[in-house]
Amino acid sequence: MSSSSLKLYGSRLCPFVDRIKLILAFKQVPYENINVNLNMKSKEFLQLTPYGKVPVLVHNQKPIYESAAIYQYVNDVFTNHDLMHKDPYMRAMQRSWTYYCNTRLAPTIYKYMFNQDPSKEVELKQKLEDRLLFLENEGLKKMQDTNGNKGSFFLGDGNEPSMPDMMYLPFLVRLDVLKTFKGFEMGKELSRLKSMYQVNAQQDYYKNNKELPSIEEIIKGYTPYVKGELTMKEDWIL
């Protein structure tokens, strides 16, 4: 199907927007990238989504919102390189682990990153470590062992990326950002997760994607919020 009139409304530092930039790059779909001022959302933008959040994809004048829904739409419409597993059970698992990222991992990363209460630092760090270890063991290890997939990609068909790879990759990048702010690093107990990050980071859809912010750019943009000089609004990141 034609990509005519494909517009992506987003924010430069939003990981949920990065997800859509990754799949569009992977499928080599051209689009117009429109950065939204989240402090002063235009009337035009607010007419596209009832939530007032990014990302929003407009295709042939029809808006789609919520990153997982946009991702599924792009995969369904632009059918080259299907990123959903052929097996119905595995497709369900791909969606299930995307839900885990949205509701468990992503909020935990940001609560720890932007925490201003020293008394909560240890607790928040431990919660993040627990979330990552659960993903490592219950997601990557168990699913790989059960389905005989020994590659580094997450729940794909063989040695190819799949939906969860691109859903998680922007947040694994934010863990690199945490290294600068908090000294946080993934330990050896997260070997599969680190391998998943490394193999995805070497793919063209990430390393040659000029629409994505660099780690240095994210660090610069997040610094005022980490220092408590500015407050990150929830709808900027979630």
From TrEMBL:
Q: Superkingdom of the source?
A: Eukaryota
Give the GO cellular component terms, alphabetically: cytoplasm
Q: Which Pfam families match?
A: GST_N_3 (PF13417)
Annotated GST N-terminal domain ranges read 4-82
Do you know which InterPro entries this protein is assigned to? Glutathione-S-Trfase_C-like (IPR010987), Glutathione-S-Trfase_C_sf (IPR036282), Glutathione_S-Trfase (IPR040079), Glutathione_S-Trfase_N (IPR004045), GST_Omega/HSP26 (IPR050983), Thioredoxin-like_sf (IPR036249)
The GST C-terminal domain extends over 87-222
Name this polypeptide is given: GST N-terminal domain-containing protein
- Origin species, per record, is Naegleria fowleri (Brain eating amoeba)
